[in-house]
Amino acid sequence: MKKALFLSQKVGIITAAQREPFVYYRQELLDELNLTIKYFNIDTLSDIRHLSKQYDSEIIFIQPFWKESPEELQNIIQEIRLQYPQRKLIFIDPWAQASSTYFNLLPYVDKFLKRQCYKNLQNYYQEFVGGSMFTDYLAKQWGLDFESWQVGSQVTTGYETRIMAGWNLGTAKKYKKQLKRSKGWIWSRLHPKKIDVFCRMSLGSRDKKEWYYEYRKAAIEALQSLSSNHQVAISGTFLDNLVPNRQYQREIKIFIFIRFSIKYRELFFKRFFLFIVRQCSQKA
């Protein structure tokens, strides 16, 4: 039986989405991969060092908060790699975009799990304005200013293949529960899916408009043109005037795109997650 440690800083919905599948698919991990996991919430990065020494395991999943120092993380993970070269180290990147501030860790981890990554991994060797292909496009095509924004880091040659898609907000227990529908005929009649286009977007702070304000505002304006022929739930609002959470959740449930059965949605989430963990647990 393989043993794994899952060391995470439990902060916010993104870290929950990254961690929760390891909890509610615990039995599947045991049955299909013969893998058991011990879960620990870490308060400081030093806890990663201490827990790695205290508990034996073949695999260590490391999930930090996005504000942690890349240099401090590198010192700790490099130390663990030198002390335990046989253990597989899996880094779960907190950045949702294709870029990251933590690519300095690539030489010391076996897998670097992203929400999304470039199809052509060679793109990670390019220098992009703002740190990513997307921000580079907005800077060059739209003329947006990225002087004070940079989310990126250098990828050491030969290590780009360690980057892979490995987590998704859709696997969070919160969203699974929200999207789950009763199988009852009466419930379905009382709650028909009737929204064709759903887009509730935050424009950030009203007092300090960041670069994403411009493209999100343009996206909202483009989608509004669909309202003449479709049922829509579209808005772009500042943080002080967001759509109420209950309304947001209610609209998600009646969004027509989410119409496939919970049976197949659950199967997709499960197979996606188990495939990723299997890839992480195999020998290079």
Instruction: Tell me the CATH topology of the largest domain.
Output: Rossmann fold
- End-to-end span in angstroms? 19 Å
If you average the pLDDT, what whole number results?
A: 86
Number of helices: 10
Q: From the 3D coordinates, which CATH architecture of the largest domain would you assign?
A: 3-Layer(aba) Sandwich
Q: What global shape is seen?
A: globular
State the low-pLDDT regions, or none: 259-264
Topology pattern, helix = H, strand = E:
EHHEHEHEEHEHHEHEHH
Q: Taking Cα atoms only, what radius of gyration do you get, to the nearest Å?
A: 21 Å
* Strand element count: 8
Q: Give me the CATH superfamily of the largest domain.
A: Response regulator
Structural category: alpha/beta
Largest sheet: 6 strands, parallel
Integer tally of domains = 2
Outline the structure in words.
This protein is α/β, with parallel strands linked by helices. The protein folds into two domains: 2-171 and 264-281, 3-Layer(aba) Sandwich (Rossmann fold), CATH 3.40.50.2300; 194-257, no CATH class. Helices cover 38% and strands 15% of the residues. It has ten helices and eight strands. It has helices at residues 12-24, 26-33, 46-54, 70-83, 133-141, 173-179, 185-190, 212-224, 245-253, 262-281, and strands spanning 2-8, 35-41, 59-63, 88-92, 111-114, 163-165, 197-202, 232-237. The chain has a six-stranded parallel sheet with strand order 2-1-3-4-5-6, with helices on both faces. Strands 7-8 form a two-stranded parallel sheet. The longest helix has 20 residues, at 262-281. The protein is globular, with a radius of gyration of 21 Å. It starts with a strand and ends with a helix.
